[in-house]
Design a protein that fits this description.
This protein is an alpha+beta fold. The chain is built from six helices and eight strands, in the order E-E-H-H-H-E-E-E-H-E-H-E-E-H. The chain has an eight-stranded mixed beta sheet. It starts with a strand and ends in a 7-residue tail after the last helix.
C-alpha cells in the first residue's frame, strides 16, 4: 500500500496503515476476547465446534495470514495514532474484479464512535480507486443489527446468504452484503457516514 490513508473528522483522526507482524500483542489480546471473536466471521463454524478464544499461537497464525496472504490487503486502524482494530480486503481477484471486506474493532473504547464507518470508507476508497475492483462483498451475522445498519448507510446492499456460523451456543446465518464500484463512486456525493 502506498503510504497511509487518513480520514479526519472533528471528533478524531482515523488513519490506516499496513498491518504488520509487530502488531501481534494487540491481535493476541483481541482474539482472546470473546466479545471480539463472537462477531468475527473468520473463526471456525459449526464443523469445528464452539468458538473459543484464540491462544497466542493461534492469534499469531491469524495475523500471519492477514499480513502475508497475497490475496489480502490488511490494514491497522489507528485512532489518534493508537491501533484499535483491523480492516482489509481478502480474496482479491483481479481477473474478476472482486474482493471481500472485513473489519474488527478490537478496542472497546473505539466502538460506537464512527471509527468503523470511517475505516471501512477509507478501505473501500482503496478497493475502488487503487485496486480498481468492481465489487466488494462482506459477510455479517444476521443478529448484528448495528453492523448491518452501518454497512447499509455506507452503501452496501443485501446480497443473499453466505452460510451458517456457530457462535454463542447456536448456529446463526451469515448474510452477504455487496457494494459495486459504480454505486460507491456515485455515493461520494453524499456526506460521509458517521
Amino acid at each position: 500500500m502506498k503510504g497511509m490513508t487518513s480520514v479526519c473528522t472533528e471528533q478524531a483522526d482515523v488513519t490506516l496503515r499496513p498491518l504488520r507482524m509487530t502488531d501481534k500483542f494487540a491481535i493476541r489480546r483481541w482474539m482472546a476476547d470473546r466479545n471480539v471473536i463472537d462477531f468475527t466471521v473468520v473463526v471456525p463454524g459449526p464443523a469445528y465446534g464452539p468458538v473459543v478464544p484464540y491462544s497466542a499461537g493461534e492469534a499469531d497464525r491469524y495475523l500471519e495470514l492477514l499480513v502475508r496472504d497475497p490475496e489480502r490487503r490488511s490494514c491497522a486502524i489507528l485512532l489518534n495514532g493508537e491501533h484499535v482494530g483491523n480492516v482489509g480486503l481478502k480474496a482479491i481477484n483481479e481477473r474478476r474484479g472482486t474482493a471481500e471486506c472485513f473489519i474488527e474493532v478490537g478496542e472497546l473504547s473505539a466502538r460506537r464512535r464512527g471509527v468503523g464507518a470511517r475505516a471501512m470508507t477509507a478501505m473501500l476508497d482503496i478497493a475502488f480507486d487503487e485496486l480498481r475492483v468492481q465489487s466488494v462483498r462482506l459477510g455479517v451475522f444476521d443478529f448484528n443489527d448495528a453492523a448491518i445498519a452501518l454497512y447499509r448507510k455506507i452503501g452496501f446492499v443485501d446480497d443473499g446468504r453466505l452460510g451458517d456460523h456457530w457462535v454463542r451456543g447456536r448456529v446463526y446465518a451469515v448474510n452477504a452484503m455487496r457494494v459495486d464500484q459504480h454505486s460507491w463512486l456515485r455515493g461520494r456525493l453524499r456526506p460521509p457516514a458517521r
